[in-house]
Amino acid sequence: MEMNATPSGERVHIGFFGRRNAGKSSLVNAVTGQDLAVVSPVKGTTTDPVRKAMELLPLGPVLIIDTPGLDDEGALGELRMRKTRQVLHQSDIAVLVVDAALGKSPLDEEVIRLLKDKKLRYIVAYNKCDLLSEIPPAGENEIYLSAGQGTGIQAFKERIAVLTATEEAEPRIVGDLLHPGDFVVLVVPIDTAAPKGRLILPQQQTIRDILEADAAAIVVKESELKETLAQLGRRPNLVITDSQVFAKVAAETPPDIPLTSFSILMARHKGVLDPALRGVRYLDALRDGDAVLICEGCTHHRQCDDIGTVKLPRWIKQYSGVQPEFSFTSGREFPEDLSPYRWVIHCGGCMLNDREMKHRQASAEDQKVPFTNYGILIAALQGILKRSVASFPHLNANPPTEARPRA
Length: 407
Prior knowledge:
- 32% of the residues lie in helices and 18% in strands.
- By secondary structure, it is an alpha/beta fold.
């Protein structure tokens, strides 16, 4: 990823859905001006979701997702449909592509009901309108166009831009907690999983948000924190740390200086902070043999002491004294059925948009499975959870309780 590129989790996700041969891929190609998707008169040409991050005027940074047909058949068709449903959970804007000559089918109507139930902004694009002898009036959320002829494509993009503009702005990462002239100390261990010469994404995003708040960011390694705080000559307004060194940083940061972690800030940014605080309480209820699902939103080369697959299971066992059974997922794979699990622990989700993170949390809540976040869990394991969220004003009236290690 280029250093100035917008991360995929911060882009507007636009999913294209519809029956086979409705012209989804042709419309995607017409909108992007690229041969992004393979086009063929053969039904079912698109077999897996195709994603393209790009700058699309007048929309700005977007992630375009072309999906397999909603009416795909057979065993492979069901697998493709599962992928399509996953894209629906990730989409900020949905485009339902309908063959104008055939009109909406009962399946299309079912999809529209689902979009409304999810309160997902959408538009119905009647493609191949050049085949009609007369174009009927377009209803609400509808447009007639022809991907093949290029008719109505600019108007379609402008309609999408209007839908995008009505999206609620995501919460700031940290900037809304700061004032111009404040300064923040960020504790950033050199992460061997990050590409050489780069910080990991949440660290980059947090630094950018601090600068946009007209505040200053001082970045140090954990080995330099104590000396840096002693030399500053002024109390920082906030210390933000990587969760993996939470205990050391908490011990070396005076108690009158607010402290939190990048992962906790990401939970707040993605809109899952409050349910994750409730979900961490399951730490005290954990029992031998409990199935625990640990999820990461990205895929990366796992190191020998990987946080998700190695450190967290080790710390949980040490803290609780019990032996749970751990399972792991990464990237965009997330089980639809969470009933086998007693607890879900999720990373900060920097590579996922807030809609997908909220969907994952809501799926767990609907299935009555507690859901929490890496940073919140690590703070609870270290006995510093209250301190770690004390900077968030909305929690002041009802602060979380600390978990207690078992005797």
